[in-house]
Amino acid sequence: MKRLLSLIALPVLALGLSSCSSQVKAKRPVSYQFKNGETAKLVNGIAYAPRKAPLAVKRAIAAGNRLQNKPYKWGGGHARQEDSGYDCSGTVSYVLREAGLMQGSMPSDGFYGYGKKGDGDWITLYVRSGHVFMTIAGLRLDTGWGADRDGPRWQTRTRPGTGHVMRHPSGL
């Protein structure tokens, strides 16, 4: 049985890896610059959506706000939707699910095939092997990079984007 599963997994893995080469890769750092009415505003750790943002974006930001101060927990957000902590893919899955943009959850590498290629107008996912983070209305939601490794947090610090593939929900 193990051998059969490995034989099945190899073509699936190869298909997933070959599709990455046709992806749109980030070429510049992920930076936050507040633009009144166009980007989310961060006040005391809480994000506020622009008034003209689509409802799904407002729901995504509200979901991200609910995750603030949760600790990083490997596997968090996968076995249970409401968990005591979240890892990177659990965070992104939670936010997209609560915004009505996906069902269930997936590991970080699963996001290589999520939605559409490239940068979104409102929501962009940044995927690389073993990690995923997102921007919502220009504000980054990430579980850690550099000194910021506490769990799901809104971030305004610039982060390198090189090596990440960009994906976005259809229409956003």
TrEMBL record:
It comes from the Bacteria. InterPro entries: Papain-like_cys_pep_sf (IPR038765). Residues 1-26 form the signal peptide. Keywords: Signal. This is Peptidoglycan endopeptidase. Residues 150-172 are annotated as: Disordered.
